[in-house]
Fold:
Amino acid sequence: MTAPASPMTSDAASPAAARPMRARMGLTQFGLSYLLLVLLTLIGCVNYDLSLGYGLTFVLAGVWVVASGQAARAARRVTVRVGAPTAAVAGGEAVYTVHFGAPGRDVPVAVVVRTSQGDTRYVNARVRAGEPCAVAVAVPARVRGDLTLTSVRVSALDDLAIWQATLRPAPDAAWNVTVHPAPEVGAPPLPPHAPGGVGDGTRRTRGDEDFAGLRPYHPGDSPRQVSWRHVARTGTLLTRETDAPLGRAVHLEWHATEGAGTVEARLSRLAAWIAALRAAGQPFALSLPGHTLPAASGDAHAARALDALARVTPRPAAPTAKVGRTSDPTGLSASAMRSTLIALAFTLAPAVLREPVWITALIAGLLLHTAWRVRRARAPIPTWALGVVAGVSAALLAGTYGTLLGRDAGTALLALLAALKTAESRTRRDANLLILLALFVASTHYFFGQGPLTALHSVLSAWALLAAAARWTVTAPPEPPLEETASAAQAGTLLALAIPLAITLFVLFPRPSGPLWHLAVQGGASTGLANEITAGEYSALAQNRDVAFRADFQGPVPPVSARYWRGPVYESYDGQRWGQIRQGSASASVDFGGPTWTYTLTLEPTSSPWLPVLDAPSALPAGTFMTTNFQAFMVRPPSTRQRVTVQSRGARLGLREYDERLRYDTALPQGESPRAVALAATWRSLAPEDRVRAALTYFQRGGFAYTLTPPTLPRHDRVDAFLWDSKQGFCEHYASAFTFLMRAAGLPARIVGGYLGGELNPDGGYLIVRQQDAHAWSEVWLAGQGWVRVDPTALIAPARVNAGVQTALSAPQATAAPAPGPMQRLQLRLDAVQNRWDDVIIGYGGEQQQSLLSRVGLGDVGGARYAVVLTLLLALALLPAALWRRRLAVPNDPAARALHDLTVRLRLPREPGETPSAYAERARAQWPALGPALDAVVRAYHAARYAPGDHAGAEREVRAAVQRIRRPSRQD
Structure:
């Protein structure tokens, strides 16, 4: 497709034809789709508060911005000249040549031409650094007559073909081509010669038999007729004239073609005869309606005759034209597709850990099939078959997850659709769409985690996918796709230059306070705080070491005995299950008076709406409310890791409680556990505090044991079975039995679920609360005291409060947890890194942003100072990209770099293929006073490039000669 331009072709360029043109910036189809992808991911980040998603979105946006500057710089360094063919044949092609100058770096270009016969043709190519080249653009010559280019658009692209800086050369009369009639295939023999007569020996015409003299050279003369001996002696082009007897010339008459039929058929026959006569070197004359050509011979005469045929009226109408790509391959590049598939597989890899096995196997099979069929140039899978696979897979996913709108099912279906897209891809446009789809898939991984490893994977995925996109920029043969190392370097450079802009936007881009819409993110509850509890539920959670949340305190960490993280409150009881109730009354009273704790919770994803808090919260985060039984309720449970700040104070809850609630919290199922009811009835005569102490004494002296694997209790009379038979249980056994006894004794009581304790990380000074720390305790309402927390489990296993679940199982009476081992200390250090990441990156939201702006004195988001600083920082963020583009625009060769500096000094760009000597002459014509200085530059340049020996001194002389040239002023 591309070839170096010959010196003769390049020197033929006129200054008007090669003058710099103003570029018009615009997006390619891929660039527009890329922008829509960035906007879509940004909306998703806003709606789901994906902090790391903001980071990836801003990196991609930075690439989009940096690429625009790359395309603009490339357009300023490219010069263009369009050359037309001398002739074309109807039904064939006219091959135009677009000549490019030698830019300082490789520049992908796209050439789009439109013809006067209604055709549009597209060619993409790569202009190599320092090499003038020519791109051939073949356009259909549909009918005879005049053919010209009505529009030429040359677009300089960035490395990813996101932006195009379009140059439009002005229409030139040199673009006109005469389309000759197509010669008839199997034309009849030539007509006979004109008969000879008297005087034939003296009547002569132009021919090729006898030498007749010399004349000046005219364009179109055959090189065989040039007298090279005179050229060598005089330096002037002369053409030999020959003649022949007039009787030997063939007369091509219009009426001789009547048997051919239509006008076009008659012209085709004449064209065939002219071709035969030109090949034989025989003179001929041509007679057409309204035009006669005297007898002569040679290529120029044949061309004039064909031109005359092309202009015979009436001229035919051109058939319907079509848009086409002159050099675009019909199939996919196997090399570029391989890179795309590898990048896609890497992007989809994390989903293997969470999606069904059959989805993973199906995706892997589709990717492998695509790699095989592209390499073997086989046809893609029919669209109808892929539709069947997609429909069946969607039905299976809906059956597995119960819906297709949730997080798990939606992301699995998206990954499958990306794999199906590879199976039906046929063109470069399909490959570009596949890359965009994969970039969107990379952003969906943040629904499942926003840790450092997820961030690293997403950046590497973006790098691999953008490198694959760089390989699709130019894929038309004979030019192969860009090498993998070169495309990776280009994509890596764009990402590196985009990072300053991404950081600036990450810090200062306004963070909305709420979602645009709410779509539940499906997934199992990870906190274990359910709407109801039964015996055995919390004991199952006690074997799960997954993190539920982390608590980072501003100030000292509360003592172990105060680390009760309050969650849901269970007040209804049917003999088997404790559940929650909804009360329409106003909230009970809260009398604050204890210590204050301010802490930040880093919550893991959950579907549970309960926010675990200490005691009574005095300040809750936005979107969280307090219920009438003092439960912190989140309107929107976190679908990803989320940080919230809470302030709690010691308080007396429900000191003034409503009678309706108190009556409800003394109710028991009729006939349930009569022995326990009878036992509690013996305490009714005691004071309320004494009833509580009596029940606790019973547990303390009753031989009860703490275990994770208690025996199964019967369906009815469970409390009796536990108190007098099994006497083994976990926290919900003791809380349930104690609450039952208090109600039977006439005291309002209920169960509170939540977490107890937390592991202190010495590296970060924060608590790690795990799923195994889930706990249940009781609350008893006492007049003058309100709801009082009572934890009967602490009597049976004090270590559960002081040291955690694992210590309580092995040493129930322990007062502290054992010192962590080497492996546990390493885990704590890694967790400290994770917590710091959550604090700085994941927890950066609207409140943190406003706090930062206030600390640095920028005021509110959107204010005048904010706008000014944001503009300045964005300009500084783009400075590295501008400096990098400026560096790339300068040639690496010292002599060529000095010549480049000269063009910058003079503000006069070089034309395509223009030699230093020709450039100096053109500059001398504009500024005659610079003639001697320009001659010195040219001599030094030639010495640096072509003289034998060490060129270092000559290169220094070139630089010195350029520096001695004064930049001309406007008056000069």
About this structure: The chain is about 40% helix and 20% strand. Residues 323 and 644 are 57 Å apart (CA to CA). The chain has a mean pLDDT of 82. The longest strand covers residues 590-603.
